[in-house]
Design brief:
The protein is of the alpha+beta class. It has six helices and three strands.
């Protein structure tokens, strides 16, 4: 839900305080700043951004900066599948095994165009 929160850094800093020593925070968020999504939102489905309450549209770089500023080390950052630049077609492909596998292969070829980021984070020592 981090993409819905105005003060995303503050929210992550608050979560960091709740982690036990050695604890790990798992963070998943859409990769809405990537080129594929921007193409979709501009040319294919321009109504989508107005229909969402997302206040942040993260890229790999902006998400890395956010979690580092909030006091976390990134243990792992990965994507699941390539974002096909049409939300309707993207969901249609995900529902089929062959489509899901095709999108996973495309993500390996273009990792920055993943549909979402999955991060494993640990709190940095003060």
């Amino acid at each position: 839900v981090i993409e819905h929160i105005d003060d995303d850094t503050g929210a992550l800093r608050h979560l960091r305080q709740w982690l036990a020593p050695g604890g790990v925070l798992l963070l998943l968020t859409p990769n809405e700043g990537c080129m594929s999504t921007r193409f979709d939102y501009r040319f294919v489905n321009p109504q989508l951004p107005a229909q969402t309450d997302h206040v942040h549209f993260y890229t790999r770089r902006s998400l890395r900066r956010l979690v580092m500023d909030a006091g976390f080390n990134i243990l792992e950052m990965r994507g699941e599948v390539f974002y096909f630049p049409s939300y309707r077609h993207h969901i249609g492909l995900l529902r089929r095994k062959w489509g899901f596998n095709l999108l996973r292969l495309a993500r390996l070829l273009m990792p920055s165009q993943t549909d979402c980021w999955q991060l494993a984070l640990e709190a940095r020592s003060p």
